[in-house]
């Protein structure tokens, strides 16, 4: 059973719909160290959409108007998801910092894995070199 992730931040964001009219719809958003979950009706009871940080490339296109901050989440398959939040809420910064933290931890894990593989290969080479 998967343990629920620690919540970094929870609140409301507006997401631009993919429909023809591209209306802004309010979503309950839960930010954890691994993902951003969006719930359509403002309650966690409904099935939410989870954007795992492993599938997110970057947070882009930050624009500030008098009332809102607009930003785009770009996924690794180049899909763009547009959001806006009240100017002082700084959701874009919270998401960006969580994404950077996730990417840094993944890079460290990848580096350590490569080191372990190289060390194991080196140990095997030394054993083979000593063999009669």
TrEMBL record:
InterPro entries associated with the record: PH-like_dom_sf, PH_domain, PHLA1/2/3
Family: Belongs to the PHLDA2 family.
GO CC term (a single one): membrane
GO MF entries: phosphatidylinositol phosphate binding
Record's protein name: Pleckstrin homology-like domain family A member 2
Coiled-coil portions: none
Topological relation to the membrane, as annotated: Peripheral membrane protein
Alphabetical list of Pfam families matching this protein: PH
Domain PH span(s) in chain numbering: 7-102
Described purpose of this protein according to its UniProt entry: Plays a role in regulating placenta growth. May act via its PH domain that competes with other PH domain-containing proteins, thereby preventing their binding to membrane lipids.
Principal subcellular localisation of the protein: cytoplasm
GO biological process: positive regulation of apoptotic process
Keywords in alphabetical order: Cytoplasm, Membrane
Location(s), subcellular: Cytoplasm; Membrane
């Amino acid at each position: 059973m998967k343990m629920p992730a620690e919540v970094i931040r929870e609140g409301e964001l507006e997401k631009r719909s993919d429909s023809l009219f591209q209306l802004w719809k309010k979503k309950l958003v839960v930010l954890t160290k691994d993902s951003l979950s969006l719930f359509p009706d403002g309650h966690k009871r409904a099935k939410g959409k989870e954007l795992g940080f492993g599938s997110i490339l970057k947070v882009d296109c930050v624009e500030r108007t008098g009332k809102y901050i607009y930003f785009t989440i770009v996924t690794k398959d180049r899909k763009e998801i547009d959001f806006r939040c009240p100017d002082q809420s700084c959701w874009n910064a919270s998401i960006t910092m969580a994404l950077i933290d996730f990417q840094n931890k993944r890079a460290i894990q990848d580096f350590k894995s490569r080191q372990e593989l190289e060390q194991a290969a080196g140990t095997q080479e030394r054993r083979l070199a000593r063999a009669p």
